[in-house]
Amino acid sequence: MGDRDEDCECRPLGFLLGLPFAFLALILSILGAVIWILGSIVSCVCPCCCCCAGLLNLAVALVKLPIKVLRWFTRKIPC
């Protein structure tokens, strides 16, 4: 038989508890998307800016944040 995590894929309680936090992360991801667009424009205009790479990596991490928050909550709540 499989692990306990594999047997219980659907955890609605963890999903529902994570929704408010995912909403806050969604707001941060919109901010990350704006930073990513502005950083892309700046890096196209001036490709010698090394600081833009770190800023763009941060922006991409912010865009992925809502999914990470929901996954974290659903993994922490048992079936």
How would you characterize the overall build of this protein?
It is a single chain. With 79 residues, this protein is mainly α. It has one domain (19-76). Helix content is 80%, strand content 0%. It has 4 helices and no strands. The protein has helices at residues 4-7, 12-45, 51-63, 65-76. It starts with a helix and ends with a helix. The mean pLDDT is 76. InterPro entries: TAXIMIN_1/2.
N/C terminus separation:
17 Å
Shape, please? elongated
The average pLDDT value, as a whole number, equals 76
Which class of secondary structure composition applies to the elements? Answer: mainly alpha
Q: How large a portion of the residues is in β-strands, by DSSP E?
A: under 5%
Q: Helix content range of the residues, please? A: over 70%
Secondary-structure element order, as H and E? HHHH
Uncertain segments: none
Strand tally is 0
Instruction: Give me the number of helical elements.
Output: 4
Q: Nearest-angstrom radius of gyration?
A: 17 Å
Taken together, the total number of domains comes to 1
Largest sheet: none
